[in-house]
Amino acid sequence: MPGPTPDEPIDAEIVETTPPVVPSPDYTADGVPTFDFVRDRIESRYATSLGSTELASETTEARTLEEREAERARAAQARLDEIRRSMGSG
């Protein structure tokens, strides 16, 4: 029996099937992230933050800023010592 000709109607019903949704191994079936996934993300972000801070502190600008802060702290301590001496002798 030959196939239908272009003029004949096709009786077959077209059924669309969708593949089953498989959750990521990092999520539960309800779409909630697993504890391990969340912990790994936090640790990764923390490590990135530490690395960025370390790299930023090695720049010339950072060293210059640290030197300025240290000088201000020394000047403030010297002024505080001067005020204390003047109050003690008065």
Can you give a write-up of this model?
With 90 residues, the chain is mostly helical. The chain contains 2 helices and no strands. It is rod-shaped and about 115 Å long. The model has no long low-confidence stretch (mean pLDDT 84).
Entry keywords:
90 residues, 2 helices, mainly alpha
What is the rounded Rg? 36 Å
Structural class: mainly alpha
Strand element count: 0
Strand content: under 5%
Shape annotation: rod-shaped
Termini distance? 122 Å
Largest sheet: none
Low-confidence stretches are: none
The proportion of residues forming helix, as a percent range, comes to 55-70%
Concise account of the structure shown:
59% of the residues lie in helices and 0% in strands.
Per-chain topology:
Elements: H1 35-57, H2 60-89
